[in-house]
Please model this.
Amino acid sequence: MRFNRLVPELYCSDFERSLRFYTEVLGFAVRYARPEERFAFLDREGAQIMIEQPGDDGRAWLAGELAYPYGRGINLEIEVSDVASLYSAVVAAGCRILVPLEDKWYRTGETLGGNRQFVVLDPDGYLLRFVQDLGEGA
Model:
């Protein structure tokens, strides 16, 4: 298995709930897990993420109190091949959508880069922005 150079590790308040959300709703696959540590390494189309529920062993790496929403100030962009189908699954599951499915163009130097995208909150409030590349425009 190839590991990306950057793999976010997200603390969660309920490991089983988060694992169901990431695998059953968002379509991530478990590449390996340590259930006894409430930890899983997940992958979807090459996007890798780790989830973990901190225990009482003092091993949690926290710079402050862990309180909802956990992901204050960060959103994770995750590229997928079919964002519309994923959006339909997220809506059907009753997830909290922050930004509905949209086409958005961003200036990237002299050109524009397009994304079809939406933003959903995971069970602990992390912002997940799923995108599908629309190419470049003038």
In short: The first strand starts at residue 9 and ends at 11. The chain has a mean pLDDT of 93. The chain has two helices and eight strands. Strands lie at 9-11, 29-34, 39-44, 47-52, 75-79, 97-108, 111-121, 127-137.
